[in-house]
Amino acid sequence: MIGDFDSETVIKHLANKLDYPFSKLFGEFIKSCENMLIDPEVLSLVGKIRAKKIKVVVATDNMDSFDRWTSSSLNLKNHFDALLNSYNIKARKNDFDENGNSLFFGDYLSTHKLSPSETILIDDSEDKENLLSNYGVNCRKIEYGTGLKEELRNIL
Which SUPFAM superfamilies is this protein grouped with (predicted)? Predict the structure, then answer.
C-alpha cells in the first residue's frame, strides 16, 4: 500500500499461490476496479461542500489500481479537489516522521497553506494511538459503508 508493489506484482503472486492463470485474474481485478460505484448522493453533498469553497479530498491507503482504474472510471478528479493515495505518497495516513510531521498529509497541507486543525478526516479506520488527532486533524470515525453522508451533511 505504500508503493512497494504494483498491481501486476500482487496479482502475479496471487495467481501463483492460487495456481490460477494470471491473465484471467488480472482481467477480473481490473474489472472490479473499474466497476466500483460511488453513491450519487455523496457526490451531490461533495459538490455542495465545494461550492462553499471548502476543499474536499480523497485520502486513501490504496494501490496503484486506484489511480489506474478506479479514479478514472468514477471520474473522481472532476468531483474532488485532490486524490491522495498512499501508493504515490509512499506513506500511509497514520505515518509520521521522527519530528511528528505527517508523511501522508504534510505536503498537501503545506502546499495549500492549511494547518491540520483546519481539516476533517472522515474514515472507517481507527486513528490508532490518536496519531492524527494529536497532529490536529479532526478525525470522524464512521462504520464501513455507513455514516459518510451524515458526516458530509454535518459539514454543510
Answer: HAD-like
